[in-house]
Amino acid sequence: MAPVALFILAVLAHLVVLHSAGYPEEHCQVHFCSSSVGNISFPFKSTEDPRECGVFTVNCSDPERPKIQLKEGGYLHEFQGSLFSPSISINDRDLADRLEKDRCDDGVLDDLSLPSASPILEVPLFTHNLTLFKCNKNSYLQRNYGCRNVNHTYYTASFSSSLPNPLPPGCATIQVPMRPFHPNKFSSLTAEFNLSTPECFQCIESKGECRVEEGEFKCAKGPGTGNLVAKFAIGAVAGLIILIVIACCLRRKLSSYRLLFFWKKQNQNRQITS
């Protein structure tokens, strides 16, 4: 019985490891930001949280001007409204001032660029985007000329034109927000745009948990469902081990009683014989 108990104990330890590895949110805390923003929880995380606690970092050091990081290690955009709403309004005053001073600065355009495709975050249709081709100053692209600085030349793509595939060497594309109903040029760039998390918002509205697993959006119905299953399995195995240990102890005691009874019987037989 002892080898069986050791085997089950090994299974229990394995389950504990899987439980801690599969549900990193166990050590992730919910942080209150402000009355307008609400709580910070997955897919958002605070600046103090580990990386696995969320996809987008929110800085609430100044509750009056909360900021969100749309790209890992990127610029922190000032935003308005609740995180868990159909639309998040980006209205960055600092970036707007920088954009007004120099619309062709690499740093400004990099900070203004929208995040790449995400399983959670979306750019609503009513937010108009402008595709820019950022090319080394020695590269040339047959597109509308935008502007030039000491390092790069920027070209714009019209709404009707297809993107060149592959891009010429030394060129890359970025998406930047622009004012709606404006000409397709640099003067229409803006630091005010909207983002949304529709699937995550609907998931939370239906009392589910918003998650990203293997790069895909998942809505876990019922808070902590996976944790409850894992805890139940661990508890069941632990209870089984306790029963096996008790059974082993009882068996040993029963064997001791049988041996004592046999010894007394043998002793009585010897006394009668003598």
UniProtKB/TrEMBL annotation:
InterPro entries: ATL20-22-like
Signal peptide as annotated in the record: 1-21
Lipid bilayer topology: Single-pass membrane protein
Residues passing through the membrane, by range: 228-250
Keyword terms, alphabetized: Membrane, Metal-binding, Signal, Transferase, Transmembrane, Transmembrane helix, Ubl conjugation pathway, Zinc, Zinc-finger
Catalysed reaction equations from the record: S-ubiquitinyl-[E2 ubiquitin-conjugating enzyme]-L-cysteine + [acceptor protein]-L-lysine = [E2 ubiquitin-conjugating enzyme]-L-cysteine + N(6)-ubiquitinyl-[acceptor protein]-L-lysine
E.C. no: 2.3.2.27
Pathway membership: Protein modification; protein ubiquitination
UniProt GO cellular component terms: membrane
Zinc-finger in keyword set: yes
The keyword Chaperone belongs to this UniProt entry's keyword annotation: no
Lineage: superkingdom: Eukaryota
Compartment(s) where it occurs, according to its Swiss-Prot or TrEMBL record: Membrane
UniProt family annotation: Belongs to the RING-type zinc finger family. ATL subfamily.
Protein's recorded name: RING-type E3 ubiquitin transferase
